[in-house]
Amino acid sequence: MPPGFALQDTGTGLGAWNLTDFGYLPDDTFIATGKTGDVKWIGPNGPKQLIHLPVEHCCDIGLTGLEVAPDYATTKHIYLARTIAAPGGFTSRISRWTVTGTTEPTGLANEQVLLDVPGTIQLHSASGMVADAAGNLWVSVGDNTDTDTWHAEAFRSQDLNSVYGKILRITPSGAGVPENPYYDAANPNSAKSKVFARGFRNPFRLSLDKTSGLPVVGDVGWGTWEELNYVVPGGNYSWPCFEGNAPTPGYSTQPQCNGVTNNPPLWTYQHGMAPGQGNSVVAGFVYTGDSYPAQYKGQFFFGDYVSQRIWTLQYNAQGQLTQAPAADAPFGTGLGGPVEFAAAPNGDVVYADIASGSVRRIVYVTGNIPPVAKPTSTTDPATRTVTFDGSKSMDFDGPTKDLTYTWDFGDGTTGTGAVVSHTYPASPAKFTAKLTVTDKSGGSHSDTLTVAPSNHSPVVTLGTPGDTKKFRVNEPINLTATATDNEDGALPITWTTQVVHCSEETTCHVHADAGGTGGSFSMPFTSHPDSRLEFTATVTDSQGVKGSKTYVARPNEFKLTLKSNFPASLVISGESNGNVAMVTEGATPNLIAGAKATDGVASFSKWDDGSTNLSRAFTMPAADTVVNATYLTPIDSRYNSDAGLRSLLGAPTGAEVNDSGTRYRAYERGRLYSSPQTSAVAIYGHILSKYLALGGHQVLGPPQNDETGTPDGVGRYNAFTGNWSIYWTPATGAHNIGGPIRDKWGWMGWENGILGYPLTDQVATPTGGGQFVDFTNNASIYWLPTTPGNGTAAVYSQIRSKWLAMGGATGVLGMPITDELAGPNGGRYNNFSNYASIYWHYNSPGSGAWSIMSQIRDRWYFDGGAGGFLGYPVTDELTTPDGIGRYNHFSNNGSIYWTPAYGAQSMCCQIKNKWASLGWEKGYLGYPTSSEYTVPGQPTWRRQNYQGGFITWTPNTGAYDHK
After folding, report:
1. Are residues 809 and 784 in contact, defined by beta-carbon separation less than 8 angstroms?
2. pTM, whole model, 2 decimals?
3. Is pLDDT above 60 for 659?
4. Which residues contact 919 (CB under 8 A, 6 or more apart)?
């Protein structure tokens, strides 16, 4: 501990490994409880028995909790938590008692039962209690689940209709408190009405924050982590789905954990004995006294029973950590086994040390701290010589080598030294000796002990199965004992047992187990992992001298190894929590396999005994054993489970290949592919050949579906992740289509649409820069990066035939830049990249499709296009006989003529007819130099100018020419 701090020990008379709890009374005396049922008052003259209560005491259960009511001065009420026998197991009972006696406690009376919690496993029962100023009682209840392996009962911690794994808040009558988050006014005695928070494993101890009134709970961990939690109303602290901040092996993958998220603890530390580690957290309280140095005010003190350490931390008003414990420098180490913390009336931190049976008060002393005398003795009855040993004495602020030891032997003589021997006179039978230890600063402390120099220690003889015998789980251990004493003869024998649990030899801790009396004792070997049983036969003679012998029953352990064909998380739950452990014969640990191998691809399939459960029980045989877990990739899983697929593809011809996440395996007649984006799918035959010829998954991506028939029953296809497909028909063979072209084809109805099936692979356009696919229904889709929309244009039927007749993509029109679109009056058209179009109309001559380009098209558009007075083109753009001009004729008896000198000029109707009758451009008028226009001043007259004159039309004269 830091300089200036010391321990003041007060004996409780309950003995080592029996003291469980204590609570101060207003007069600075306290009451303490023993696991075996004793309740004692520790007053000025030492311990005094108040009552012995019958309890079931083994492992974690017994008389485990005590709370002094805040109004004790007027009510004399205390609360006890104990386990009593019940059919099929036991009951954890929370009761309120009244302390009898006027000037000092003399007994307990008037039990009122507030809560009964049935139990079957001698672990994680109701244990922690805190009474608040409003008269309500806070109770911590564990999950009552075994620790050796995975158990479904642990999920009761998540069930609001169960009290297991909860922090409860109940009224003085045992009902739920109306302010509880799940209180049901119609059923105040329901479990849900009593629940304040859930998701705990073994919330052994708790305290209430003096500012917020909320609990701070220490939750003892299972495999890896200990937790301190600042508990809010309705909070879910995630057990068994999480331990610490990590998913719990064996539990987190179960469906009951769906939707349960991690609720980070206030503080968590890992199992082990390294600095900052431990194995059994015990929550304390926030120090608010004035006797310690100022920096400790507001610090939360807590401890660990196994590692025998005490730490401090600090949190704010919101329950958030503001100062973490000093992992490499705890407040104190080697301080015994703390199992309860409480504040002395002056605020000092006091804790129950189960290892010594003492209540230890941490005091701060300015100046010299007196040493602590701890005398022991051994006796040689034949010579009445007693050897005294004071070497266990302590000095908190100096080395013990500087202590001086003075002995008063009680017969008028004295001696000095840490270890001394003294021969006593023939009488009397007993003497009281005293040891005084003094430090270099003059501080001193004395302690006494009684010795009986002539008394022989009783001798215990054990009958055992032998020191080399090792035991399987539940194998009976049969022991006998006899005891003799020179003075008293035969003595009655008391048996005690304890389970010594050692996940590592440095982290051993004990759980008291069943006891008994008589000359024989038998019990089955424990199923607790990493544990041995210690049986002690003890006798006490008339002088109070004890004799004992201990037999250690050790497990018959064998090596259990979990292996898999893919690297994977494999856990022997409750043992090493790794994939290798020494396991007792007959133990039934859970074997837990990760759902996925570490590559994230292969999935768990089965254990080698056929079990397909990720978590399963396993009974350990009497031999080193290897258990194998089989993982299958999606490809192997699909192939192994589908007889029809195996028949289709045939036998494998090579190992599975992994190419940057895309996996495939070749078979006699095809392949299976899988990827992070796809399941395992089959590709074979002509489509596979085309796929591989095009570069396979590196170009098109892995297949997304098995080869599948098209709805019309004619074709087959596979789709690929790169937005590609390959389609096959008997008539066309296999062809690829992808990207925007595939998107356009799909939008137009796939193979059932107007385009039909792909007739060619998707290839580059002849002029470069684009791609195209031809289709069976006289159709094509072209893609150019400059085409509006997604870059694609579909051309088909008569328009496509006309386009191909004019040279297609390399012809005068260029490539299509629009889909075939609807024109006026039932027409259709496509636009092309070389400033051109093809228009089709069902009344147009020939195929109905005619091209129009450049300036003639511009003039046509200016005149209203297909919906204008000219109508649809009925010729392609043609050259005049003299080779100078270009022209199109249109459906409404119109034409547009173009010359280099005069551009494109439109004409129609009677004016056009007159010009034609005069010999077209070969007549005297020559080419048009203007389009038809209204004569100025004559709104009903029309005129068109020509090289050699003009033609005028009036309603009265019709069309006439003149120079």
Report:
1. no
2. 0.68
3. yes
4. none
